[in-house]
Design brief:
six-stranded parallel beta sheet, Rossmann fold, globular, alpha/beta, 41% helix
């Protein structure tokens, strides 16, 4: 797809940095992006889109981008900005304009959980289209010296406040605190660096900070110089009244600098007090913590180290890129074929069965076949996860089982196939794509299918990853103590209490699918209602009238148990299982790992029988590491065999 990204924020501002970074992600993934300065007239935006043959639009601000996008007639994505939710939503006229734009958007993006919840509260009608994509960052410090730039002595202790001069950023919040502190200790300096948005407000700030009192305003610094200035500081500060996901805080954390931030949701969504940074509510509380950083440098270094680890785990560019590219893939799936856009879907025929298949990445890379669970289509494997694995050098394949998605469906209640037939379907997918072998990744029922494929076709199996699943049948010795715990009665009763929906009513079906997902989720963490609804809506829209047929998987003939054969498997195996799986208690995972030679076990704490958004990064990293190791091992074995 060809995108147009609207630029309406000053260069070097947080929103400008964000939209340019996202544009780079999309361009790198093969979706060219035209960066366009906001035109004076909305019709000029439509003309530019036509001239450059743009397919879709993307921009920050539900108001500033949204009210223009809504008039162009192309699909568009909106990234919720702090001012949308914190300021514009308080104005009835602005809120009405944003609501109109939100209702027409193909997707909305919120950077943190606070904005996800507030976005759903403002626009519940858009819940299915709201994506939670944590903001990423990267840093590249120059050789700039803030100390030298300001003419400060080597012993000066700098606290850096990257802040635009706007009331919502409240850059004056700590000025009196620093004036008193500098009078007591002349080494202490506050440096404010950022854009001036309003001439009148800049004059107020400059009057308040004065001159020669340990306070300085540098204006905006080049991004690489700002990073260098962070390294020259004791700590990086944020004093905003409200925020969404401040770039500067993430950048400081990425550089390993301690951060001291005001206790507001936009900041506390990024840092944990006392672990990855420090939060304060008033100037007195700030000074207590700032003095500790001065007196205990190892403590500050520890905070910075933990902050860097957190950013690189939860806010890394690879994850952000995959999430945006996955969101675009979701859009492509919904567009009519006549639009001439390719979602990567194709049909593989095995006998009289049509299997809908979708691929990600380069076919020359090692293949990873994702096999979904009972009643689940390919959408059980999130597009962002697929994109992330593909970006790691894998050719990712996901497909719809029979009776799911866009594959062949049968009347409900009497499936004319067995579990072994579904295993043969997996081989049929490989054959249809011309793949000699693949890393098999199966979840729940898909994990059982993967086991059968590996047992019957070891030459087609590069490795196994078994997620939330169970071995087939009793242990080899058949002793009573080896029997695995069944699904708890409370879970069975919870499913039994769900009333069958009217499958012709989209809302009824989505409510039922969401309630089912709630039963499967872990109990120790909040259930992501919005994410479940979003997936349920997409499942319904892809399956249509065939959705009731998915229940056929409950009536499958599993054939002969295979647990006693697992000891013969030689494919490198990774078992991934939720600690709170309500369908297959954790003992099933331990049994699998024990039966398969050299299998590794990874437990997802607080996870249920699900592939939750909360676990996506951890699962992705595990898949990439396991498939890389398995591919290398396979290559060594083959090289040895040739010798």
């Amino acid at each position: 797809m060809r995108f147009l990204a609207l630029l309406h924020s000053p260069v070097a501002s947080g929103n400008d940095t964000t939209i340019r970074r996202i544009a780079t992600h999309l361009s790198d993934a093969g979706h060219p992006v035209l960066l366009l300065l906001e035109p004076a007239h909305e019709e000029d935006l439509a003309a530019a889109a036509r001239q450059h043959r743009v397919d879709a639009l993307i921009g920050t601000h539900a108001l500033l981008s949204g009210r223009a996008f809504a008039k162009v007639g192309l699909p568009y994505f909106l990234i919720l900005a702090g001012t949308d939710v914190n300021e514009f939503a308080l104005d009835r006229e602005y809120l009405d304009q944003m609501t109109h734009a939100v209702e027409g958007a193909a997707g909305l993006v919120a950077f943190n959980e606070d904005f996800v919840q507030r976005g759903r509260a403002l626009w519940p009608q858009a819940t299915e289209r709201l994506y939670h994509i944590p903001q990423s960052t990267y840093t590249a410090p120059s050789d700039f010296s803030l100390r030298a730039h300001l003419g400060l002595e080597p012993e000066a202790r700098i606290f850096l406040l990257p802040s635009g001069l706007r009331p919502v950023k409240d850059p004056l919040f700590l000025v009196d605190c620093f004036r008193r502190w500098h009078a007591e200790d002349p080494r202490i300096h506050l440096v404010i660096s950022g854009l001036s948005y309003e001439e009148g407000y800049e004059a107020i700030v400059l009057r308040r900070i004065g001159s020669g009192q340990g306070m300085h305003f540098t204006g905006p610094l080049e991004r690489c110089d700002l990073h260098a200035a962070m390294l020259d500081s004791v700590a990086v500060l944020n004093t905003s009244v409200s925020e969404c996901s401040p770039n500067a805080v993430l950048e400081a954390m990425d550089l390993g600098r301690p951060v001291l931030v005001r206790d507001i949701p936009g900041n506390t969504c990024l840092i944990r007090h006392g672990n990855t940074g420090l939060t304060f509510r008033d100037p007195d509380g700030f000074r207590v913590m700032a003095e500790r950083l001065l007196d205990d440098e190892p403590y500050g270094e520890l905070l910075g180290l933990r902050a860097r680890e957190a950013v690189r785990r939860f806010h890394n560019p690879a994850a952000e890129r995959s999430a945006y590219v996955g969101m675009v893939r979701d859009l492509l799936d919904t567009l009519p074929a006549a639009a001439g856009r390719q979602s990567g879907e194709q049909v593989v025929r095995r006998g009289s069965v049509d299997l809908c298949v979708q691929t990600f990445g380069d076919p020359q890379d090692p293949a990873v076949l994702l096999i979904a669970g009972s009643g689940a289509s390919m959408l059980a494997w999130d597009a962002a996860l697929c994109e992330r694995v593909a970006a790691g050098g894998r050719f990712v394949v996901r497909f719809d089982h029979r009776d799911t998605g866009r594959s062949t469906a049968y009347p409900s209640g009497e499936p004319p196939y067995t579990l072994r037939d579904l295993a043969d379907d997996a081989i049929g997918v490989l054959d249809g794509l011309g793949l000699a072998e693949a890393h098999l990744v199966g979840a729940s029922l898909g994990g059982m299918i993967a086991q059968l494929v590996a047992l019957e076709h070891p030459e087609r199996t590069t490795s196994l990853t078994l997620v939330s699943t169970s071995p087939g049948g009793a242990a080899p010795d058949g002793a009573d103590h080896t029997q695995l715990p069944p699904t708890p009665l409370s879970v069975l009763l919870a499913f039994d209490a769900l009333l069958a929906p009217d499958w012709t009513d989209r809302d009824s079906a989505i409510e039922y699918l969401t309630a089912s997902a709630r039963v499967l989720a872990g109990r120790s963490r909040p259930f992501d209602e919005g994410e479940a609804q979003r997936l349920a809506g997409r499942v319904y829209d892809r399956s249509g009238a065939a959705l009731p047929s998915a229940a056929n998987h409950l009536y499958l003939d599993y054939g002969e148990p295979w647990r006693g054969r697992l000891g013969a498997l030689r494919a490198p195996t990774l078992v991934i299982h939720g600690s709170e799986d309500p369908i297959y208690p954790l003992a099933h995972a331990y049994a699998l790992a024990a039966e398969i030679p050299h299998a590794a076990l990874r437990v997802l704490e607080q996870a249920g029988h699900e592939l939750s958004h909360a676990d996506r990064d951890q699962v992705t990293e595990a898949l990439l590491q396991h498939t890389a190791t398995a591919t290398a091992d396979e290559g060594r074995i083959r090289a040895t065999a040739k010798v």
